[in-house]
Amino acid sequence: MNNIQAIKLSNDLMNKADVVYLSTVTSNNAPETRALLNLRNVNQYPDLVNMFDENESSLVTYVTTNTSSSKMKSIMENPKICLYYCKADEQRGLMLTGEAEIVTDMEIKKVLWHDMWKIFFPGGVTDPDYTIIRLSAVTAKGYDKIQTYNLEFKGK
User: Fold this and answer.
1) Which of 17, 105, 155, 156 lies deepest, with the highest CB count within 10 Å?
2) General stress protein FMN-binding split barrel domain: which residues (predicted)?
């Protein structure tokens, strides 16, 4: 499988997975994984489709979290993260690694914002507890049934 095919498979999975799993490393060097909203899911977030260029030669994604969360504490201490997407029923998985970037651009935060998140962020898009994390993948490892693939991207 060539890189273009691997990126296409990766984007397809990212667009279909119900959740994304975020892994961080705590200050005690213990790994922690938790499920987050998959903002790339085209059925759950159809208005965000234009945020993601599927023809990019890299895999970029965003997740939202609480600034006050333990995961943010871990990311501030060690920005290396892993995101994992899967469709177990289709025997497909994708692991992305790289460094978390905290998004401060209010325009991006506004584009990603959904009113249903007020349960988590009562102050809305300007709530100080509303944080967006961007990952520009450095590596990607995936599988699609019996095919596996590895990608490496330049950058951070």
Assistant:
1) 17
2) 61-144
- The reported pLDDT for the residue numbered 58 is 63
Tokens of 148: 């596996």
Write out pLDDT tens, residues 79-134.
999 999 999 999 999 999 999 999 999 999 999 999 999 999 999 999 999 999 99
- For the chain, helix, strand, coil in percent to 5 are 30, 40, 30
Token pair in block for residue 52: 């993601």
Cβ neighbours around 29 below 10 Å, total: 7
The whole-angstrom separation of Cα 33 and Cα 21 is 6
Half-sphere exposure of 106 (CA within 13 A, CB side): 5
DSSP state of 102: E
